[in-house]
């Protein structure tokens, strides 16, 4: 049973739609259709640049309340540039996403690390 079915806070999805992601720089992608497809299964937030432009289009799947309780962290996916990849994300989110459903092997190919920024006054 997914977090949504259980009445908890569902997965949330963040899509980067700024300088590279969501722009004509990534050709052959219907960015609006991708965003709308994701909205069919989860709340979607459109973000400005997430600073991993070399991995455009970037999608971040944030865990549901149940996923967070299980210790899950957000999963960053890059190069999600075709409808089949979007459908793989949709299926995983529908199943519960991070911490609830195992990451499908196919999506493991898309996992990227977010850029780590130095903290002010620290290292």
Describe the structure.
Strands 2-1-3-4 form a four-stranded mixed β-sheet, covered by helices on one side. By secondary structure, it is an alpha+beta fold. The termini are far apart.
Q: Biggest sheet: strands, sense, closure? A: 4 strands, mixed
Mean pLDDT: 88
The share of residues in extended strands comes to 5-15%
Strand order within the widest beta sheet = 2-1-3-4
- 3D shape: globular
Helical amount: 25-40%
Protein structure class? alpha+beta
What is the radius of gyration?
14 Å
Instruction: Tell me the span between the first and last alpha carbons.
Output: 42 Å
Unreliable runs, pLDDT <50, ≥5 residues?
1-6
H/E series: EHEEHEHH
Q: How many β-strand stretches?
A: 4
**Number of helical segments?**
4
């Amino acid at each position: 049973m997914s977090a949504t079915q259980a009445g908890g806070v569902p997965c949330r999805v963040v899509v980067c739609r700024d300088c590279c992601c969501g722009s004509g720089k990534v050709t052959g992608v219907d960015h609006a259709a991708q965003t709308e497809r994701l909205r069919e299964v989860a709340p979607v937030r459109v973000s400005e640049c997430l600073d991993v432009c070399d991995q455009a289009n970037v999608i971040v799947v944030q865990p549901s309340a149940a996923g967070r309780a299980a210790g899950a962290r957000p999963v960053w996916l890059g190069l999600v540039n075709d409808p089949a990849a979007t459908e793989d994300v949709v299926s995983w989110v529908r199943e519960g996403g991070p911490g609830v459903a195992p990451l499908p092997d196919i999506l493991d190919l898309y996992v990227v690390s977010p850029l780590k920024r130095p903290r002010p006054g620290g290292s």
